[in-house]
């Protein structure tokens, strides 16, 4: 009898042990599946993303990168497609959907190339973000998470995915489709395939590309040009585009349009005073003449030196001369050249 009892206890114990192992294996499979769904979207890099002064394009790129890596599934699929098709977020009133948290009343529908796949976020008053997927009109949707942009950036940096944020932001578009909020001035740009009057990128002349240092050395001012952008003294990159001439012909662009084009600049070439100027203006700038830049050659210390001439105003008056060498710029402090056109020359 004792032998049978012991045998029964051993069998029962073995059954419990096997059941426990099966449960543990199931748990491991579940965890592995979760891990697979959040695999990295691109190869790791050492780049870092900061949430300081994010443009609307950078913000949606950060959210798409975070959600794609964190949650996988449709977010990951969209983020991968957006690398080829372009990232676009359409703004709708939250009344279009049934969201568990409406934030401040605007639903941001994130897409690759404009086709919606139910990926939406809203933003709260404290600037935290509510993230959703599988959102459908008329059907209640529950959020995946509420998270701050700072926490998203930290996660993206830890995963080595910051480069994807920058890549997506380069061609990202923010399109306001809320009823009555689209500026009539954007309608002429719809036929061009670009939003808000944006046409092709403007290429900075090769000899102008690089960093230039001001002769007003007390200001420690410098200007950097890349192929299609200018880096401002605030450290922000402003992309240069040709602008549809009808874009500013109508009403003043709405606040949402101004925010969406915050880091775009209108650029064109103008020949005046014997110089070939690149004229740069704010995208929604309706007054003023912007700043103009031209490459010129001057004799400095008996040598021919290439300089950057900066001009302002309707008269394209020289406001500064920049040099490629900071030491030379300091030596030439506030020097004026006879062949350049200054405002006092018109007196």
From TrEMBL:
The yes or no answer to whether the keyword Signal is present is yes
Which residues constitute the signal peptide according to the record? 1-26
- Source species, domain of life: Bacteria
Could you tell me the keywords of this UniProt record? Signal
Stretch list, region Disordered: 175-201
PROSITE patterns in the record = PROKAR_LIPOPROTEIN
- Residue ranges under compositional bias (Low complexity)? 178-193
Q: Know the name of this protein?
A: Lipoprotein
């Amino acid at each position: 009898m004792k032998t049978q009892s012991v045998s029964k206890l051993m069998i029962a114990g073995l059954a419990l042990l096997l059941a426990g192992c099966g449960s543990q294996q199931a748990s491991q499979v579940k965890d592995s599946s979760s891990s697979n769904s959040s695999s990295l979207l691109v190869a790791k890099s050492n780049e870092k993303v900061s949430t300081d002064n994010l443009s609307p394009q950078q913000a949606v790129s950060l959210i798409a990168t975070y959600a794609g890596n964190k949650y996988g599934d449709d977010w990951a699929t969209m983020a991968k497609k957006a690398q080829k098709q372009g990232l676009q977020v359409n703004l709708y009133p939250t009344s279009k959907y049934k969201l568990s948290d409406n934030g401040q009343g605007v639903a941001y529908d994130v897409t690759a190339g404009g086709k919606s796949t139910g990926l939406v976020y809203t933003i709260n008053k404290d600037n935290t973000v509510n993230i959703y997927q599988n959102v459908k009109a008329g059907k209640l949707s529950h959020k995946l998470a509420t998270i701050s942009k700072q926490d998203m950036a930290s996660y993206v940096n830890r995963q080595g995915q910051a480069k994807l944020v920058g890549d997506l932001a380069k061609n990202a578009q923010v399109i306001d489709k809320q009823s009555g909020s689209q500026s009539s001035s954007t309608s002429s740009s719809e036929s061009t395939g670009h939003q808000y009057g944006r046409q092709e990128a403007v290429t900075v002349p090769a000899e102008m590309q690089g960093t230039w240092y001001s002769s007003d050395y007390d200001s420690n001012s410098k200007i950097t040009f890349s192929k299609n952008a200018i880096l401002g003294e605030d450290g922000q990159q402003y992309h240069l585009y040709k602008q549809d001439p009808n874009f500013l012909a109508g009403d003043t662009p709405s606040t949402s349009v101004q925010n969406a084009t915050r880091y775009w600049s209108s650029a064109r070439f103008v020949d005046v005073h014997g110089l070939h100027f690149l004229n740069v203006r704010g995208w929604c700038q309706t007054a003023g003449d912007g700043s103009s830049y031209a490459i010129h050659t001057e004799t400095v210390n008996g040598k021919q030196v290439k300089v950057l001439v900066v001009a302002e105003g309707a008269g394209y008056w020289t406001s500064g001369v920049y040099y490629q060498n900071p030491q030379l710029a300091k030596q030439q402090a506030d020097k004026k050249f006879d062949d350049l056109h200054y405002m006092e020359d018109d007196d």
